[in-house]
Specification:
Distance between the termini: 43 Å
CATH topology of the largest domain: Rossmann fold
Largest sheet: 6 strands, mixed
Shape: globular
CATH architecture of the largest domain: 3-Layer(aba) Sandwich
Radius of gyration: 23 Å
Number of strands: 10
Helix content: 40-55%
Oligomer: single chain
Strand order of the largest sheet: 2-1-5-6-10-9
CATH class of the largest domain: Alpha Beta
Strand content: 5-15%
Length: 334
């Protein structure tokens, strides 16, 4: 750990390295975990000494599989930790299934010691389920944002690549682990070391907690028409209470017919159809990732009746919301 009141680079050789304890949940995302660990490894290498140490644990203490199917040998089970350890929970796909009662109980117990607890990728869900994020700012992978907001309204969810709020940290997944680790390395040992680590990782653009995780609308859809981008952003922000195409057109200063032509030209579909696809995509996320009733999912996505919702869903996904929910429920443990 860094000795207080000493300038960077003059830390005593007797100081112990800061220890990170990585908790690998079943189906964790390997990229998020590897990005974090390698940042610490390279920091040690560039500093010429062990600034950081780490241990990899998980439920059972034996093997855990990442979302790519590879098995990892754990260093140990969910044991008691030192008050100075930093817990980094690594999530991935099927986070509801991998967030077990034992993991939640262990997290609550260790958090009561005052430890720093972080959630990488989807593990913000695990932290929130453990009751560790109430009133805190957080982020999670964009694909899980809708379900997270519905389940944890007490958490101030952002779209940032990472968030640090006191002794709670969350990342959006992917390479955002690098951004968080570079911030921590810079805080501990200065910007020069953090920049050296970034160079070793061939990481040319270090992001901050002010950067958002998804591409801008123009980049995402491959179209740089300002009014079209503005309309799509309005659609994405108004899923529960959809806005009519005529109102959307009026808000950006064009006629409904002009808006229709714009969508046909660039996206090969009508505004109404595009809006419907956005709403159905959110509905599918909620069905797959939450225990919300089909009726509540329908209402959250702007459908006035379950029958209309079911009809639209079947046309788009070739199955009904009830069957989708049944398949997902069968994959979860009782």
């Amino acid at each position: 750990m860094q000795t207080p009141n000493l300038p960077h680079g003059s830390m005593s050789d007797q100081a112990k390295p800061v220890r990170f304890v990585f908790v690998l949940l079943e189906n964790f995302t390997m990229l998020s975990f590897a990005s974090a660990v390698d940042s610490l490894r390279i920091a040690n290498r560039m500093a010429g000494r062990d600034l950081y140490a780490w241990r990899v644990i998980g439920e059972g203490g034996d093997l855990v599989r990442c979302s790519a199917g590879s098995a990892f040998k754990l260093d140990g089970d969910l044991d008691d930790l030192s008050w100075a350890d930093k817990i980094f929970v690594c999530g991935g796909i099927n986070i509801h299934t991998s967030t077990t009662k034992r993991v939640l109980g262990w997290l609550r117990r260790e958090a009561r010691k005052g430890l720093t607890v972080a959630g990488l990728c989807t593990a913000a869900y695990t932290l929130a389920r453990a009751g560790l994020m109430g009133g805190k700012r957080a982020t999670i992978h964009w694909e899980n944002q809708d379900s997270f907001q519905e389940e944890f309204p007490e958490v101030d969810l952002t779209k940032s690549v990472f968030v640090v709020d006191g002794n709670r940290m969350t990342t959006a997944g992917g390479t955002s682990s690098i951004d968080l680790m570079l911030k921590l390395i810079a805080q501990d040992h200065g910007d020069d070391l953090a920049n050296s680590v970034a160079d070793q990782l061939i990481y040319a653009s270090i992001r901050t907690d002010q950067d958002v995780q998804r591409l801008s609308v123009p980049t995402r859809i491959g179209v740089r028409h300002p009014k079209l981008s503005q309309v799509i952003q309005m659609m994405e922000n108004n899923i529960e209470e959809p806005i009519s195409p005529s109102t959307l057109a009026q808000d950006v200063g064009m006629s409904t017919r002009q808006l229709e032509r714009l969508f046909r030209r660039y996206l090969n579909r009508s505004p109404k159809r595009y809006y419907m696809e956005l709403r159905l995509q959110k509905a599918r996320n909620l069905l797959m990732q939450t225990d919300m009733s089909v009726i509540n999912v329908a209402l959250a996505c702007g459908f006035a009746s379950p029958s209309h919702f079911s009809k639209c869903y079947r046309v788009h996904y070739n199955t009904t919301p009830y069957r989708e929910r049944g398949v997902q429920t069968s994959r979860r443990p009782s």
